[in-house]
Amino acid sequence: MTTLPKAELHVHLEGTLEPEDMMRFAARNGLELPWRSPDELRAAYAFTGLENFLSVYFQGCRVLRTRADFHDLTTAYLHRAAAQGVRRAEMLFGPQAFLDHGVPIDDQLGGITDAIDEARESRDIEGALLVSAHRHRTEADALELLDLVRPWRDRILGVGLGSAERGNPPSKFARYFAAARGEGYRTTCHAGEEGPASYVREALDVCQVERIDHGYAAAEVPDLVTRLAEEQVTLTMCPLSNLRLHVTDDLTEYPLKALMDAGVPVTVNSDDPSYFGGYVNENYAAVTDALGLTEAEVKTLARNSFTGSFAQPEELRGVL
Ligand code: ADE
Ligand code: ZN
User: Fold this and answer.
1) Which protein residue's CA is at the shortest distance from atom 9 of ligand 1?
2) Can you list the domains of the chain with their CATH numbers?
3) Which cofactor does it need (predicted)?
4) What is the pLDDT of residue 318?
């Protein structure tokens, strides 16, 4: 598992902030946190659901202020991922939280892209950036975000949509995704995590996204499963996240294998590894144990991670 080459397609850079680093960044930026030690912080990681998790996650975002913070965060993740056999990481990142704190977009994206360039050389891992809008905000905010990141267009592979799902359907962001497509971005959308299967349909039909982040709720709807298989829509599933946020309470019933058996290209990812108790390999291990996956099935998951990535075919030469 450790050395099996794989891609990670669903990880939020902000969700890779380890408690020790949160404390360190807070101290170096002269900021107070409600927790006095990494252990006290870890004790706050008993989440009741997505919105409760997001309140802790956005508190963590408060400590990231400088170009060096974004650089160091990205470097730490890419090094850890490379050590787990990750050869390509498509990393979601939501600038809006940091803009709220007055952090210039150039400091955010400059720090991240410097770290991507360095890790390509030092660790042989390809990092790619997916800018993610917050769905609890307005579509006008998301369109403004597209304007703001336009100078960085050649360093951004695609766009996504995250944050509080219920009550914020993909259709609220139809124009955002249309505008992103018009600018040549690849597209992905969180759907069917806490929200219903209809949100997965909306993401495909109204927003025309290429990939679905999570897609858990789709598993209960046979005709949607058939469609995902027929259209070969990649789902970026995150088992430990779904467990910790009570999307599922038992990984032995996790629909990943059923979806795979039905022909849906599913992948395994970490989402917010520092908050959910595992990076990508711990997620592979958890589903392998719970579902009794064979070695061939694990290899299929790893293969799906490359074929479902937004890499150009020539970038995959040597890994497929
Ligand atoms: N942002 C970070 N983690 C998320 C998740 N699990 N769902 C939606 N938005 C997120
Ligand atoms: Zn996510």
Assistant:
1) 163
2) 6-310 (3.20.20.140)
3) Zn(2+)
4) 79
**134 annotated ligand-binding residue:** no
What is the mean predicted confidence (pLDDT) over 60-77? 98
Is 190 within any annotated ligand binding site? Answer: yes
Q: Could you read off the pLDDT of 150-167 as tens digits, one per residue?
A: 999 999 999 999 999 999
Cα(92) to centroid(ligand 1), Å: 10
Distance CA 173, CA 176 (A): 5
Catalytic residue among 18, 165, 193, 202: 193
Q: Would the pTM count as exceeding 0.90?
A: yes
Task: Look at strands 234-237 and 126-134 and give their pairing.
Answer: unpaired
**Pocket probe mutation, ligand 1, options 271, 274, 276, max atoms within 8 Å of Cβ:** 271
Which atom, in ligand 1's list, is nearest to the CA of 190?
8
Q: pLDDT by residue (tens digit) across 231-251? A: 999 999 999 999 999 999 999
Name the average pLDDT for the chain: 97
> Ligand 1: which residue has its CA nearest to atom 4?
163
How many CB atoms are located within 10 Å of the residue 191 CB?
A: 30
Would the annotation count 214 as a binding residue?
no
Maximum Cα–Cα distance for the chain, whole Å? 53
